[in-house]
Amino acid sequence: MSPSSSSFDRDDILHTRSGQAINQSIVHIAHEFAVLGYVDVARRLISLFNRHYPLDPYQVPLRWLRLLWVETGSWPEGELEKFKDSGESVEELVKASRISSGRIFSPRDHVEITDDIDGFRLLLKVIDHQPTWNPEFADASTGGDAMSKSAALAKAYDLSLLLAEQQSEALANLPSPEQLLGRISKRLHCNHQLDDLPCSRKVWKELAQGALAKAVGVQDDKVRALAEEVEQTFRQRCEEGLQRMPDQPIEQLLSTIDKNTRTNKGALEFFEGYLGAGVEPETLYLDPAGPAEILELERRLNVTLPNDYKTFLSISNGFAWSWNGIIMDAPLHPASKLRWFRDDETYFTELSITIDESFIHTDEQRRTKYSIDAWPTVGRAIEIGHEDIDNVWLLPPENTKRLKDWYLAIIDDDEISEQLRMAALKTISAFAGSRKEFEKLDWLVLTWASGGSACMTAYASFKVFLEEKARASGTCWDDEDALAYRCR
Questions:
Q1: What's the domain of life for this entry (predicted)?
Q2: CA 194, CA 201: separation in Å to the nearest integer?
């Protein structure tokens, strides 16, 4: 599941081990129903979110939804209390939600947009003829140009509503609010368009009355059916926790990853762009490692490796690139390339072990002795895969124990709030299935992507790592997806 995705996938929500992904998904999807005018659905989803994830730091979309609750006068469970606790006034919220010129222009070509007819004309010119935007990317699902255009269109729609109230003759030959919303409705998948659209109470009033739903042409029965499925899925996940995938042997998991990577539409497009048309691997498998080779590996590393990993080596001594639903994952090393971290790789050893970003960055957690600065670090680990900025590591049991002890100390600490303790319990239950299963963990797998989008993902075992890869390899990210488009 993409952390920034609002796309609904029932299986992903039920089976992902990332609490952060669940939290982000429920908020984004609530936002998407809200802008379509299905405020009752959004309100119930946010109420569910607040009941089960009261400390989650993922608040930006929630903040803009608060303009809707102010406008309607009806708040989700727990949300008005959170707004009051924030110390922010309605006036401050209104001011913060407005789209500034800096969101539209880069510093080198910045122009201040005024809230009048001249500013409106300038926005229209920018939307259609901004020379610094690459036309190829201005309507993409990622990238700065698409983000700037989304902000410009949202600002133009907001300003058109304001000017329409003035009934000025100067607007006669300019796009109406309905025409601008029609343009927006064709690019809901574009970067930040859904996020930026509700930038004022005036806009929220129109959206709450179904203006966008009308522009898209959604069918009410389809939206209601989808909403019922969405709500049932999130309730099941929140109330019952992680749903286990059917158990499969490692041989079957590898076969699934291999087949999906060589046949998935997204993977084939990647291979074509990277390797050339018609060029894709015949297999991801390498020749298996024999018992003597595995014993020699353990002797060289001076460690007894986990059985699931040794089973993998006995089937395929390493594994090529594999598709993860969006891009390719790093290949896994053959036995001869496995290595412990070097002494000079302190950048890796000093990374905090993260099994859920949404827990370690809560404001309440930061105020305790369990703050991120004191969090257990990766320490010495074994590199089992690598390419460019992507790394795959085996975390040995002694390092895993430090992480387990840390979480269990939080859960059993009577001096911190019940909410924080329950948040920690939810985190380990999402990760391992239950506290009992968490206590049994020994070898973990960590993936680390360096660079500007640095990200760590943890897996409860090597087999779980393969299970997640097998599930993801069967998916393909649709960069033109939006819930509204499913309901036409």
A1: Eukaryota
A2: 15
136 and 14, same domain (yes or no): yes
In a domain, 1, yes or no: no
153 vs 100, residue with greater confidence: 153
b/e per residue, 385-414, with b = 16+ CB within 10 A?
A: bbeeebbbbbbbeebbeebbeebbebbeee
pLDDT score, position 1: 43
Taking only the tens place, the pLDDT of each residue in 413-468 is 999 888 889 889 988 998 999 999 999 999 999 999 987 778 899 999 999 999 99
216, amino acid identity: V
Structural tokens at position 471? 């599930």
DSSP state of 101: G
How, if at all, do strands 455-459 and 444-449 pair?
Answer: antiparallel
342 lies in a domain?
Answer: yes
Same domain, residue pair 182 and 297: no
Whether residue 457 sits in one domain with residue 321: yes
pLDDT digits (tens, 9 = 90+) for 288-328: 999 999 999 999 999 999 999 999 999 999 999 899 888 88
Q: Say which residues have a Cβ less than 8 Å from residue 101's Cβ, sequence separation at least 6.
A: 110, 111, 112, 113
Q: 417 in a domain, yes or no?
A: yes
What tens digit of pLDDT does each residue of 160-175 get? 999 998 877 778 889 9
In a domain, 199, yes or no: yes
Last residue of a domain, one of 210, 240, 270: 240
Which DSSP state fits 287?
P
Residue with tokens 């309905």: 178
Beta strands at 382-387 and 339-340: parallel, antiparallel or unpaired: antiparallel
Token pair of 437, please?
Answer: 């299963």
CB 188 within 8 A of CB 484: yes
Domain boundary residue, one of 184, 208, 240:
240
**Neighbouring-strand partners of residue 392:** 385, 447
Range of the domain at 280: 250-473
Is residue 329 located within the same domain as residue 356?
Answer: yes
Query: What's the CA gap between 383 and 336, in Å, rounded?
Result: 11
Q: Which residues contact 149 (CB under 8 A, 6 or more apart)?
A: 127, 130, 133, 138, 139, 190
